[in-house]
Amino acid sequence: MLETPVAILAALGALVAGVAIGYLARRYLAASAVKHAESYAERIVAEARAKQKEIVLEGKDQALQAQRAAEEEGREKRADLQRQERLLLDRSESLDRKVEALERREQGFEERQREVDDERARITELHQRQLVALERVSGLSVAEARQSLITQIVDEAQAEAQHRVREIERRASDEGDERARRILTTVMQRIAADHTSEATVTVVALPSEEMKGRIIGREGRNIRALEQATGVDLIIDDTPEAVVLSGFDPVRREVARMALTKLISDGRIHPGRIEETVAKCRAEIESVMRQAGEQAAYDAGVPGLHPELIKLLGRLKYRTSYGQNVLNHCIETARLSGLLAAEIGANVAESKKGGLLHDIGKAVDHEVEGPHAQIGADIASRYGVNAIVCNSIAAHHQEVEQESVEATVVQIADAISASRPGARGESLDNYVKRLDDLQQIALSFPGVERCYAIQAGREIRILVKPEDVDDLASSRLARDVVRKIEESLQYPGQIKVTVIRETRAVDYAR
Q: Is the CB of residue 160 less than 8 Å from the CB of residue 152?
């Protein structure tokens, strides 16, 4: 038991000694750490002071450099300002000298202007004196003299213009004639027409006079049946061994001619047989027309036409114009149009198509009101023909404006085909009336003494009174007559107008 307190006291003493030793050790370590930290802080402070000195020195160097650069820039700016000041001074002095020179020149101009004004007033006064003197000498006022001078100048200008016009027309005519002659000669050499003119057959020959009675039939039943079936009139008169067919539709007339010919050959003529024969002939004619249209398109080199256009082309096989077969005329016009288009660089295919279809309106012009050119253009447009070809059809008689060079080509080809020798014929009454109309047009102009239509109406020669019509007026008269003929008459081809002014010198020997 005694040992326990002693052990405790020993333990407490050891603990106190340990705490004291730990305290002393910790204090020693803390003092050591403080010394180390102080030495580290002193080292950092020393380094910072060294860097601060370097930074300060570097800042001073930069400040010195900036100060030197600023001083250098300031010196340059001052030098630049001094140069600009010198330039401004020089310019100011120059402007002052120019202003002084301008002032002196302005003063000179003012003095010159006063001199000019004085001279102008003197000239005006002299002009007035001269006018008064001229009026007194000539007996004309200023207005009358001015009008006389203007009239003289106008007359001289008109004469000069007329001379120029005549020279230009002559040169253009020579060049145009030469080029047109070459082109047309080339085209005509490359096409050969195998027809001249045809006429629709309207007279059917009979083997005997007895056949007229059989055609008429009992109480006229046969002729009535034939007229009703064909739609044409049969004229049976005193003409020996002939029957005349009359009708506006050439296809119906051809059907009637064919049916009557077959009935005469067969000998059996009665209403039932007539209706049967007419039906067969109509079907045969339809087939013939279709084949004729297809052959025409093939001969003209125009493929791809609508079947209805082919059919209408075939109808032209039985249509004539002034004795010229219209289908053959269309084929020839298509060929001419293609050759002309090739010569001048136009569209050959459209020119051919326009030439082939240009008279297609004549196939139905007895059924539809209006000019055949416009009817044909409407039909072609309805069946898908392009606008250029439709315009070529509508404009080939100049009833509408031509919108392309192909339209002009078709018009020229149509005129060539229609006006060549032997292409067309004309009745005597129409021929005489056309010649009389030509002469009446020429005689309607003042100064015309006589006129003569020659060369079958293709030329008119006009003799004028030389005292009423001078050379310049003769040219104007020719153009006026041409313009009136174009506006008033319908004619194939062209008409040449020649104005003749005769100069006569008359004297008497006494």
A: no
